[in-house]
Amino acid sequence: MRITDTLTVDDGELEERFVRASGPGGQNVNKVSTAVELRFDARRSPSLPVQVSIRLQKLAGRRLTDDGVIVIRADRHRTQERNRDDARQRLAELIKEATFVPKVRLKTKPTRASKERRLEGKKVRSTTKRLRQSRSDGD
Questions:
Q1: Is 43 helix (H, G, I), strand (E, B) or coil?
Q2: Class of domain 11-99
């Protein structure tokens, strides 16, 4: 399965199980196993670089098992073939998203002028509130 120009996943690494689906299909849905459960071992895959594997496991969220296997269930369509293609496409998109390296955020400090503006605003607000207070003259 081709992910990017440089990254491919061997079909032997994918495990597919066909199960009965809920949803559209009428009486056929009770007889035919059209839903696909696609499993991919992200932790032990020789096709993925280590950093991509780590990012993929983070992106997978609740689809990731304790063993590092990503499970994608596809039952949107009525046919086994379309569900199979849907599951593979969703896995490919997830892996492709994991190939992007996020930008490293550089810490910055507030400028001197921004600190002074903040303090000036606090002084103005303080003065406004002080002027609103009712004064008891000790009657």
A1: coil
A2: alpha beta
DSSP H helices, 40-110, are 50-60, 80-99
Is the full-model pTM beyond 0.70? no
Cα 22 from chain centroid (whole Å) = 25
CB 5: neighbour CB atoms within 10 A? 6
Helical axes 50-60 vs 80-99, angle rounded to 10°: 120
Q: Where are the domains of the chain?
A: 11-99
Helix (H, G, I), strand (E, B) or coil at 74: strand
Residue 120, Cβ neighbours under 10 Å: how many? 10
Separation of alpha carbons 52 and 95, rounded Å? 8
Q: Is the Cβ–Cβ distance between 42 and 15 less than 8 Å?
A: no
Q: Mind listing the pLDDT tens digit for each residue in 114-123?
A: 999 999 999 9
d(CA 112, CA 110): 7
